[in-house]
């Protein structure tokens, strides 16, 4: 327990003292995870909507693949992204290995199946007759998808939170493709691993509190938006 309190006190001290490296790591963590979540929304929401509404051959196999990918180990994702981004890899000419961009790519691949799965589940909770009713009213394709998204907006916000939570807490992929380079690719999770390996457990605990606080602030903001217009029946 003493170690926990020491870590909490050190974390508060680091923040209040304005330690530039701590803020640099925290802001990079937020930027990388935020961009990865945004990319996963651009890819995952349309995919989830499509899989939830459309019927086609091999749909079940594709849904099964999405559900399996929701549990992919980040280390595995990092390994495959690294293979493609190495100098000898298919995308090696881009020079993205050990850069924040590589971390965004890896984290986006982790979050996209999560966002897709949550989106698909939220749409499937709607009345099955609703899509047909929307089309019967003469809605254009754009209006159709907009109205479906509006009806399942609470589930979509849950998808955002789940995707963000999946990437801000991962370490394996970030370490594999980012390399934990100081002042360049070091984020809170990789910094925690580094401090544990160095035996600086109080600093590691302090960084863990900062990471949890950062995740809570972002998730709380999304939760506030999600619950703002929710109606409760007593």
Helix content: over 70%
Any idea what the shape is? globular
Distance between the termini: 41 Å
Report the sheet with the most strands, covering strand number, pairing sense and barrel closure.
none
CATH level 1 class label: Mainly Alpha
* Strand element count: 0
Name the CATH homologous superfamily: MetI-like
Order of helices and strands: HHHHHHHHHHH
Mean pLDDT over all positions: 86
User: Whole-number radius of gyration?
Assistant: 20 Å
Any low-confidence stretches, pLDDT <50, length ≥5?
A: none
**What's the number of domains?**
1
Multimeric organization? single chain
Structural class: mainly alpha
Please report the number of helical segments.
11
Measured by DSSP, the beta-strand proportion falls in: under 5%
| CATH architectural name | Orthogonal Bundle
Instruction: Quote the CATH topology.
Output: MetI-like fold
Q: What's this entry about, in short?
A:
With 234 residues, this protein is mainly alpha-helical. It has helices at residues 2-16, 20-53, 59-69, 74-85, 100-124, 129-136, 141-151, 153-168, 172-178, 188-198, 201-227. It is built from 11 helices and no strands.
Fold and architecture overview:
It contains eleven helices and no strands. It is an all-alpha fold and 234 residues long. It has one domain: MetI-like (MetI-like fold, Orthogonal Bundle). The radius of gyration is 20 Å and the shape is globular. The mean pLDDT is 86.
